[in-house]
Amino acid sequence: MAFDVLLPVADMVVAHIQLLHHQCIGNSIRVHSPQNGFPDLEGVQIAIIGLRENRRDQNHLGESLSFTEIRRAFYELFPGNWHATIADLGDVDKGERVEDTYFIVKQLTETLVKKGIIPVFLGGSQDLVYPIYRAYDQLDQMVNLVNVDSRFDIGDSNKPLQHRSYVGRIIVDKPYNLFNYSNLGFQTYFNPQEEIDLMDRLHFDAYRLGNVAAHINSVEPVMRDADIVSIDMGTIKSSELSYRHNKAPNGFDGKEICAICRYAGISDRVGVFGVFEYKNDVQEETAAMLVAQMLWYFIEGVNFRASENLDVEKGNFITYQVPVDDEVLTFYKSEKTERWWIEIPFISGLNNKLKRHTLLPCTYQDYLEACNQNIPERWFKARKKNEV
Asked: Are 267 and 224 in contact (CB under 8 A)?
């Protein structure tokens, strides 16, 4: 069983819970501890797991990882008006080989997703997203991956897998489960032109840092269609963290990254969430507290999921049809949440990749643009991918 390899939360963290207010998260969460053993997963909706693997970080110098400071900071927070049951399952230590760690991460992800539990991973180098993605090999569905990162992480798929090339391996390795890859917050000067061109040729979505920061609500429809959400700590500007995490003067600030996490949580579809490229240091309490608050906002979002029925025949939707050139675009507006979707047509006779969802999340602005005879770019890309 994959849970057998999980290391319990450190004694000093468990002891710290005794000093906290009785309403703090630390006193309501189920903790894998040396004293009480592995927690009962019955009724659990969110499971936190630390991943100590960082050997595929190109800057790795042999340092080890600890998530003690993040846990202490997270346990000290007060929950919102939450109903979800949370468990902290402890850590996955480095395997003898990196591939051994990958195997465990894949097993854990597959097991938890099948149980209807959302794994929340703390990492570790971001190449760990690769085994998380491979867990969907057994889940019989196409996958939408959202990466909040200043880089695309496509790299050279012919070289050994590492933290800045894992997306390239996801794209080329069989079985092909990836339907869409979206990047939020890329910075052009960190990405070679060939990767920018490849993103365009593959009809993937890429949103520049400035555009996302200026219109933070544009994140919502992207997250609404995501299965896996991965956040690289390098996307946060260094003044919010410290020099050990990155040397980036530009990036998301604390409020923006927490808003992004909340949008990820609100999405009815997101089944795996992870924060990667954390570099621990006993003096970096600010970074640990920011990660703790990112987790808090993700969980807050999960607690406010609308669980909306996407069956337009059964759901409460208002339908709008907009003629644009030779197309008739069909929009649906939810009467429950006032969120918008646009239909991707299923074209008979083609090898349609998309089998599960035919509705693409969009915004009211997309509808207005269509009324002005402009086809939404995300709809165009989704249709092109579907026809490949």
From this structure: yes
Amino acid in the structure at residue 338: E
Cis check: omega of the bond before 8, within 30 degrees of 0: no
d(CA 69, CA 78): 17
Q: Is the Cβ–Cβ distance between 132 and 106 less than 8 Å?
A: yes
Please check whether residue 177 is in contact with residue 136, taking contact to mean a CB–CB distance below 8 angstroms: yes
Question: What is the rounded distance in angstroms from the CA atom of residue 39 to the CA atom of residue 31?
Answer: 6
Residue 215 has pLDDT above 80, yes or no: yes
The answer, yes or no, to whether residue 59 has pLDDT greater than 90, is no
- Two tokens, residue 379: 């709809």
Position 190: which residue type? F
User: Cβ contacts of residue 335 below 8 Å, gap of 6+?
Assistant: 316, 317, 318
Separation between Cα atoms, residue 304 and residue 381, nearest integer Å: 30
**Amino acid, single-letter form, for residue 160:** P
Signed CA dihedral, 259, 262, 266, 269: sign only:
positive
What is the Cα–Cα distance from 334 to 306, expressed in whole angstroms?
11
Q: How do residues 232-291 score in pLDDT, each as one tens digit?
A: 999 999 888 865 666 788 999 999 999 999 999 999 999 999 999 998 765 678 899 999
The 3-state secondary structure of 47-101 reads EEEEECCCCCCCCCCCCCCCCHHHHHHHHHCCCCCCCCEEEEEEEECCCCCHHHH
64-79 residue pLDDT tens: 899 999 999 999 999 9
C-alpha gyration radius of the chain: 21
* Three-state DSSP class for residue 155: coil
- What percent of the chain is modeled with pLDDT above 70? 93
Q: State the pairing for strand pair 317-324/327-334.
A: antiparallel
Q: Count of residues for the chain?
A: 388
Token code pair at residue 299: 């969980």
Distance CA 144, CA 376 (A): 19
List the beta bridge partners of residue 342: 331, 360
**Do the beta carbons of residue 106 and residue 51 sit within 8 Å?**
no
Tell how strand 317-324 and strand 340-343 pair up. Answer: unpaired
